[in-house]
Amino acid sequence: MQKFAKGFLVGAATAAHQVEGNNIHSDYWAQEQLPHSSFAEPSGIACDHYNRYEEDIQLLAQAGLNAYRFSIEWARIEPEEGKFDPAEVEHYRQVIACCKAHGVEPVVTLLHFTSPKWLIAKGGWEAESTVACFKRYVTYLMEQLGSELHYVCTINEANMGLQLAAISKRFRLMAEQAAKAAAGKSAEGTVQVGMNFQKMMENMKYAAAENAGVFGDPQPKVFVSERTPEGDRLVMRAHVAAREAIRAICPHIKVGLTLSLHDLQAQPGGESFAAAAWEEEFTHYLPYLREDDFLGVQNYTRTLYGPQGQLPAPEGAELTQMDYEFYPQALEHVLRKVAQEFHGDLIVTENGIATADDSRRVAFLQQALAGVQRCVADGLPVKGYFHWSLMDNFEWQKGFAMNFGLIAVDRTTMARTPKSSLAVLGSYAGA
Predict the structure, then answer these.
(1) Which helix (H) or strand (E) holds 418?
(2) Average pLDDT, whole number, for the chain?
(3) Which residues are catalytic?
(4) Sorting pLDDT into bands at 50, 70 and 90, what band is 30?
(5) For residue 177, what are the CA distances in angstroms to 174, 183, 200, 311, 323?
């Protein structure tokens, strides 16, 4: 094992809704409370990171990590349209200050899937007004906190909506072909976010009425919804508007967004499917990204394609709790492919594994980081690596059952227990 050079970001990542708890003004909180919710359980106090962030950042720093990627929750900052909460801004100011006090670089994401409930009631991520709303929020936040930051991700996994649309279509086809849950469940392991497609299908007729009562729309356009091509372009225009606002107020900040990227591997006869998937997952976003300072690369596994389209994981392959194939080599492959077309800096903003066996996480980490170091040695502009996640947390619709963390969290007492993988990751940070 070799350490990264001094200045290379070695960190871990979280998302506000997944760890903070009591995010009561957000769309996800509202959806979790529905009688026929697709969520396995509500987020509740999550990991209580809102109150325990100092302890968590201290554990991260003590292990040797030098960076922390976290998100600021829009629904806290602007709980009602046009009404900002200075107390919540002050909270995040303290989180940033805590990072710096421990020698940790704060890398902030401005939107990590969750949105204010009021935004969704206005049409959400298919409504033209959302671009201006997002820019207003970003402008306010940068005026308040921008001077204290060096890196900002505007939007997390801006391509997730198109991925979900494709997965949902495939899931419905599979469900029609085989009316049993197992057939559908296999589709859940092909998208890099915790989704319960089977439960969504079963609850559809009830959820429509319940959503209409809460959001005024039987199919609310939350960020993690099946996205139309128009909605896809709208998300990117929101990113561009946010980037412009950040640069106007804080020109020193490096700005980018993050994308969910699979290592798309074509088997004989599958070349056209793999090429089309890469175009949808990455290439068509390039015109919107060319002015960005960096791209956040988020990868967990590979996807195989054959003559008929997407293939399941190979027979006998090791699968994670999320039904992803254990394939840490994917990250290096994706970094190399992205660097052929995007010429700014690259930061691995998420990479990890859901497993209760931390020895497998250590093995995953070591293999993934060896690939990153080969990329750096070959001159690729990779500037950082953030493991997902700092702690076991609320994996969206799948609840608290997934173990992604470098730190275990006792669900009853909220006590933190660092795993061996935390120290292993920290050992890679340069002096």
Answers:
(1) strand 416-418
(2) 94
(3) 157
(4) very high
(5) 5, 9, 18, 16, 21
Q: How many CB atoms lie within 10 A of CB 85?
A: 15
Q: What are the residue ranges of helices labelled H in 78-196?
A: 86-101, 117-121, 129-145, 160-177, 181-188
Residue 201, domain extent: 9-426
Instruction: Tell me whether residue 4 is in a domain.
Output: no
What does DSSP say about strands 105-111 and 151-155: parallel, antiparallel, or unpaired?
parallel
- Render pLDDT for 160-181 as a digit per residue (tens, 0 to 9): 988 887 777 666 666 666 655 4
Domain total of the chain: 1
pLDDT tops 70 at residue 318? yes
Note the pTM of the prediction, 2 decimals.
Answer: 0.94
Report the 10 Å Cβ neighbour count for 144: 17
Answer for the pair 194, 17: CB distance below 8 angstroms, yes or no.
no
Q: For residue 241, give the CATH number of its domain.
A: 3.20.20.80
346 CB-contact burial (10 Å; exposed 0-12 / middle 13-18 / buried 19+): buried
Q: Is residue 2 part of a domain?
A: no
Task: Compute the distance between CA of residue 289 and CA of residue 17 in angstroms, rounded to an integer.
Answer: 26
- pLDDT average, residue stretch 263-270: 98
- Please check whether residue 317 lies inside any domain of the structure: yes
pLDDT digits (tens, 9 = 90+) for 348-380: 999 999 999 999 999 999 999 999 999 999 999
**Residue 176 belongs to some domain of the structure:** yes
Strands (E), 237-339: 254-260, 263-266, 294-298, 302-306, 309-311
